[in-house]
Amino acid sequence: MSEFKKYELEAQESWGETQAYKEYEKRMKEYDDGKISNLADGMNEIMKEFAQLMKHGEEPSSDEAQSLSRKLQAYITENFYTCTKEILFSLGQMYTGDERFKANIDKHGEGTAEFIKRAIEVYCE
Fold first, then answer.
1. Which contacts of 66-73 are long-range, i.e. CB under 8 A and separated by 24 or more positions?
2. In the chain, where the domains are located
3. Which of 62, 84, 101, 105 is deepest in the core (most CB within 10 A)?
């Protein structure tokens, strides 16, 4: 079983009854493999942008980091499911709380996951 499929099953088990997950499932049925790959690339680009801000000494509370938090929320909403601030906050926590997510995000630069989490916390206050 692929890693993606494992994550998908885990997500279904945790959030399968939520409106957001039902919206996600509906949208994913409409996407082909190329679209899914492009969406993953888009998420990676946003993560890279956060990493660049961090590397240039920006604070998670900076206007630029807050703008990227808004961009991340909009990207998720446009492509996967309606991403409320409550959901975004939970995602930020997961970015550092789940070692798989943390490792994937930190490939853009050590500490990127923590930077994003902190930027999201400020954005969601």
1. 66/119, 66/122, 66/123, 68/119, 69/116, 69/119, 69/120, 69/122, 69/123, 70/123, 71/46, 72/46, 72/116, 72/120, 73/123
2. 34-124
3. 105
